[in-house]
Amino acid sequence: MGRSRTNLTQLQIAWADAYMRCGSPKQAARMAGYQGNDNTLAVQGFDNLHNKAIQAYLKGRWEAQTMRPPEVVSRLSRQARASADLYLDDLGQVDLDRLRAAEALDLVKRTKQRTQTTTRMDGTTTETTTVEVELHDAQAALDKLARIHGLYKIPEVDAPPQTIRVVIKPKKDNDGGER
């Protein structure tokens, strides 16, 4: 296999990319196309994981994918400010197209769609679709932002200094005298 500009083979790059997806050196070796039994794949995964060039490649990929602090704060701020008017139409129905248009799909924690078919006695059927959208918890986002900004610091109480009196008495020996 040829080497890329990172000085890694295509197989090593495939391994590193697979490792980023699955987190298992042995499984990444299998996914990348290395051949052999479980022991061979485990050894290859271990070797790749400890290869300095692959480590540098992985570090660069992780840094490129990692959110920086300003982005984290920005994302949390968007979650804290999120409102149902982002995805409800004039009839109060969920409108995911509005969320998409507002580029606000990152505010959605989960969606759930249920379709229920009802058949009447006369043979007619009615299909009802229900869509639920749950946004990320605004209060949880506010709590995290408050912690980031240090709003939970407990003010120091100016307490008067306390003096503790300690009395040390000499120990007495067996015949009643002091030591």
How is this structure best summarized?
The chain has 179 residues and is of the alpha+beta class.
Structure description:
- The protein is of the alpha+beta class and 179 residues long.
- Among the domains are: 10-65, Arc Repressor Mutant, subunit A, CATH 1.10.10; 83-135, no CATH class.
- 43% of the residues lie in helices and 13% in strands.
- The protein has helices at 10-22, 25-32, 38-49, 52-65, 69-81, 96-101, 138-148; strands at 108-119, 125-135.
- The protein has a two-stranded antiparallel sheet with strand order 1-2.
- The radius of gyration is 32 Å and the shape is extended.
- The model has no long low-confidence stretch (mean pLDDT 85).
Provide keyphrases for this structure:
extended; alpha+beta; 2 strands; 179 residues; 43% helix; 7 helices; single chain; two-stranded antiparallel ribbon; Arc Repressor Mutant, subunit A
